[in-house]
UniProtKB/TrEMBL annotation:
PANTHER family: MYO-INOSITOL-1 PHOSPHATE SYNTHASE. Residues 213-317 form the Myo-inositol-1-phosphate synthase GAPDH-like domain. Belongs to the myo-inositol 1-phosphate synthase family. This is Inositol-3-phosphate synthase.
Length: 388
């Protein structure tokens, strides 16, 4: 199944790590560590192979991928030997990257994006395209957008800008018949009008905000406290981020969107909202790496007060990149199987998943396994047997 992976923010750290990793996997130069679709419960012939993924994308920058990869080598994110080995392939991907369209109206911009996606599909004879947003986090939109129906929104696109950039991309993706993934806390497809458009066009979408670090740990620990009937009084987190993501999240609007996404898991798991504070601080010296320190205060039998703390050190791009590949493969298979609209079964990958999804990681994992197994055509080899 020939699948296009169209990356919005294609020259950013996450995207460049994803593309470099894909090229390395194709060449047999790296293991599939971090790719959950390569685990036995998920692996199967109904998912597109790494050699069936074709990369394109939009970005406002024009720095060549090879140069961006070199900066990630210097930052300790990518191995120099690996980047050198796939340098020619990185240069070849350049032919499928486009500048983000600039137009007088959002309706015109959407038409230009649709044209870019159609040309990409034709050039590589693709069965499906999955548009994946890995651009910078946006401020949360105002409530008026949530009240617009599709007809009203479509008419408004001919006037002054009404949609945030991520939602422009979602609209264009659906118009072009593409699946859509928002790996950020931005609005993306999470507007009733865009949900209607996805259903009308028969395409799937999922998101929001990839679960790669502190919130991943929260989604494991919070169910533990709930199942042991231990009362959490407070959960405080301090996040230190560098790089472009950290710089963007230093701004009040994007920071508020990110914090809301990160905090949502606690209340959904516990059934109540403890005192919760999340701080995000920009530390330029950290580069593409991040550190989170969390302090959990809880009460046990007879009101005995206790606490737990943990520290997470991670490289955001290296944590996110394999999940981008997983999502491209699964969403493409979902579209092939006729799934459309929101995919809550992919909650395993997100802090703030679409639809009605279980909040705990274990339940999300079980849901993901059943979902992916259900995408296999009738009579396809069993995934466990396939991996034996």
């Amino acid at each position: 199944m020939r699948t296009g992976m169209w990356l919005v923010g294609a020259r950013g750290s996450v995207a460049v790590t994803t593309v470099t990793g894909l090229l390395a996997l194709r060449a047999g130069l790296a293991p599939t560590t971090g790719c959950v679709t390569e685990l036995p419960p998920l692996r199967g012939p109904h998912l597109p192979g790494f050699d069936e993924l074709f990369v394109g994308g939009h970005d406002i920058m024009d720095t060549p991928l090879s140069k961006r990869a070199e900066t990630l080598v210097a930052a300790g994110v990518l191995p120099a030997v690996l980047v050198g080995a796939v340098a020619a392939e990185l240069d070849a991907v350049e032919a499928d990257l486009r500048p983000l369209p600039q137009a007088a109206t959002q309706a015109s911009a959407i038409a230009m994006i649709v044209r870019d996606l159609a040309e990409f599909r034709d050039r590589h004879r693709l069965d499906h395209i999955v548009v994946i947003n890995v651009a910078s986090t946006e401020p949360r939109p105002g409530p008026e957008l949530a009240q617009m129906d599709l007809a009203t929104l479509t008419a408004a696109l001919a006037g002054p800008a009404v949609l945030p950039p991520s939602s422009v991309m979602a609209y264009a993706a659906f118009e072009a018949g593409c699946g859509f993934v928002d790996f950020t806390p931005s609005a993306g497809a999470r507007l009733p009008a865009l949900d209607d458009l996805a259903r009308q066009r028969g395409v799937p979408y999922t998101g929001h905000d990839g679960k790669t670090g502190e919130t991943l740990v929260k989604s494991v620990l919070a169910p533990m406290f709930a199942m042991r009937n231990l009362q959490i009084g407070s959960w405080s987190g301090i996040n230190l981020l560098g790089g472009g993501d950290g710089a963007v999240l230093a701004e009040p609007g994007p920071k508020a969107a990110k914090v809301a996404s990160k905090d949502r898991v606690l209340e959904s798991v516990l059934g109540y909202r403890p005192e919760a504070t999340t701080q995000i601080n920009y530390v330029a010296d950290l580069g593409d790496f991040k550190t989170a320190w969390d302090l959990i205060s809880f009460s046990g039998f007879l009101g005995t007060r206790m606490r737990m703390e943990f520290t997470w050190h991670g490289c955001d791009s290296a944590l996110a990149a394999p999940l981008i590949l997983d999502l491209a493969r699964i969403v493409s298979a979902a579209q092939e199987a006729g799934r459309h609209g929101p995919l809550p079964e992919l909650a395993f990958f997100f802090k703030d998943p679409v639809g009605d999804a279980p909040p705990g990681l274990a339940e999300q994992w079980t849901s993901l396994i059943h979902f992916v197994a259900g995408l296999a055509p009738t009579g396809a080899p069993d995934q466990q047997s396939e991996s034996a």
